């Protein structure tokens, strides 16, 4: 996505590149990787994004793996550029003041001194100007998506009723709990991270956790300011509903029992940070459901849930279609891809001597992210996901539930309230 602080910390850009008419492995950081409606995307940008995502592992990748990573990153850079140009045409570019506010916000959130911040920027191959431009693009795409989403109207009562009647079995309050969360991600997931490794994540989790437990800070505000996950940050901590069985399958042993136990009351913060698939979660119990309960369309919030789900699904589909249409209309020249086609036998699959087993799929496929995310190369792709509920990436069951929300599976799409 757009490179901001998390990407800044990923490391400086490499020197390998490819331009029009050059070989796949030529070294030219100023080479043109692609051109979008006459606007150049240089190899320097591609290399910078690949290195940020690979987190130092790019030196251990084979030429074949690096080529795959570059193509994946470039495709998303192309998409971002296409959508930024659309935002410009739609006259939704952010003002300089908007950019200034966001820049200062992220610098403050980094917790670094000005000198340390500048040093990290330099190490990442970023300048203040290039970083500001990336943030401007990110804000522009968010404003564009908001404008496009404004075309979606609320569903009619007949549509809501039809949806409910076709999915009654999904509308059940199973014994469980609705949870809110602040997610701290030690990896560069492209979700607006300000932490860069386990050490910085532990420090941040301890600081945020102590604030939450003190009762002197509003959890929703903390989540909005500190969560490194798109959904929980944009929804001010709101996450989703877990049945008791889901909690037992998803969280560490003993968590479900503690949440459902008599000592855990609604509104309380879970006393320990919860590790979950590499991430750290600070969890608040929003509401506990003691018994299974069938819901009707007139049950509290059910009609609202169905309405929101239908609207979000429409917005998501509209945004994805808008992106596809914009790309189809754009004049895109992908020189890097052409070089691969012209030189199919130039790439070796052998890794450098002594290199560890690098998972090429992980490094070649950038992670998706949020309005505050900054490492990934595709704002357009990731912004499409913001129109439907998503869970912290670490939580597989929750992520699967979010994915089903756009298809109308109400059991997975929204927390029971």
Return Rg in Å: 22 Å
Order of helices and strands: HEEHHHHHHEEHHHEHHEEEHEHHHHH
What would CATH call the architecture of the largest domain? Orthogonal Bundle
Q: Say how many strands there are.
A: 9
CATH class of the largest domain: Mainly Alpha
- Counting structural domains, the number is 2
Sheet of most strands: 4 strands, antiparallel
**Could you give the distance between the termini?**
33 Å
CATH superfamily of the largest domain: Porin chaperone SurA, peptide-binding domain
* CATH topology label of the largest domain: Triger factor/SurA peptide-binding fold
Q: Kindly state the percentage of residues in helix.
A: 40-55%
Order of adjacent strands in the largest pleated sheet: 5-4-7-6
List segments where confidence is low: pLDDT < 50 over at least 5 consecutive residues. Answer: 1-24, 358-417
Mean pLDDT: 78
Verbal overview:
By secondary structure, the chain is an alpha+beta fold. It folds into two domains: 5-149 and 314-386, Orthogonal Bundle (Triger factor/SurA peptide-binding fold), CATH 1.10.4030.10; 172-294 and 407-413, Chitinase A, domain 3 (Roll). Helix content is 49%, strand content 11%. The strands form three sheets. Strands 5-4-7-6 form a four-stranded antiparallel sheet. A three-stranded antiparallel sheet has the order 2-1-9. Strand 6 (274-276) and strand 7 form a beta hairpin. The protein starts with a helix and ends with a helix.
């Amino acid at each position: 996505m757009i490179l901001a602080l998390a990407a800044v910390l990923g490391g400086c850009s490499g020197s390998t590149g490819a331009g029009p008419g050059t070989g796949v492995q030529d070294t030219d950081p100023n080479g043109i990787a692609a051109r979008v409606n006459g606007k150049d995307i240089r190899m320097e940008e591609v290399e910078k994004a690949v290195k940020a995502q690979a987190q130092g592992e790019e030196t251990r990748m084979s030429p074949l793996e690096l080529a795959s990573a570059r193509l994946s990153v470039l495709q998303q850079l192309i998409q971002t550029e296409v959508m930024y140009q659309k935002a410009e045409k739609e006259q939704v570019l952010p003002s300089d003041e908007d950019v200034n506010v966001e820049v200062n916000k992220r610098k403050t959130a980094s917790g670094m001194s000005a000198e340390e911040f500048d040093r990290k920027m330099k190490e990442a191959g970023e300048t203040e100007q290039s970083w500001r431009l990336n943030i401007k693009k990110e804000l522009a795409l968010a404003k564009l998506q908001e404008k496009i989403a404004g075309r979606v109207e609320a569903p009619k009562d007949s549509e809501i009723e039809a949806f409910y009647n076709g999915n009654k079995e999904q509308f059940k309050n199973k014994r469980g709990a609705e949870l809110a969360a602040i997610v701290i991600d030690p990896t560069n997931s492209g979700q607006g991270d300000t932490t860069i490794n386990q050490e910085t994540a532990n420090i941040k989790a301890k600081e945020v956790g102590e604030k939450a437990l003190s009762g002197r800070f509003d959890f929703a505000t903390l989540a909005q300011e500190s969560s490194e996950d798109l959904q929980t940050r944009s929804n001010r901590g709101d996450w989703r509903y877990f049945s008791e069985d889901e909690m037992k399958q998803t969280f560490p042993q003993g968590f479900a029992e503690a949440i459902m136990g008599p000592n855990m009351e609604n509104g309380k913060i879970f006393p320990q940070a919860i590790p979950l698939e590499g991430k750290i979660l600070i969890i608040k119990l929003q509401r506990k459901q003691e018994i299974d309960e069938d819901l009707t369309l007139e049950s509290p919030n059910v009609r609202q849930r169905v309405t929101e789900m239908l609207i979000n699904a429409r917005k998501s589909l509209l945004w994805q279609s808008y992106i596809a249409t914009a790309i189809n209309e754009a004049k895109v020249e992908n020189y890097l891809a052409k070089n691969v086609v012209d030189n199919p036998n130039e790439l070796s699959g052998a890794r450098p001597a002594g290199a560890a087993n690098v998972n090429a799929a992980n490094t070649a496929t950038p992670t998706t992210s949020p309005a505050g995310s900054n490492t990934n190369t595709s704002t357009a792709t990731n912004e499409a996901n913001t129109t439907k509920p998503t869970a912290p990436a670490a939580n597989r069951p929750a992520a699967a539930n979010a994915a089903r929300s756009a298809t109308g599976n109400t059991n997975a799409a929204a927390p029971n309230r």
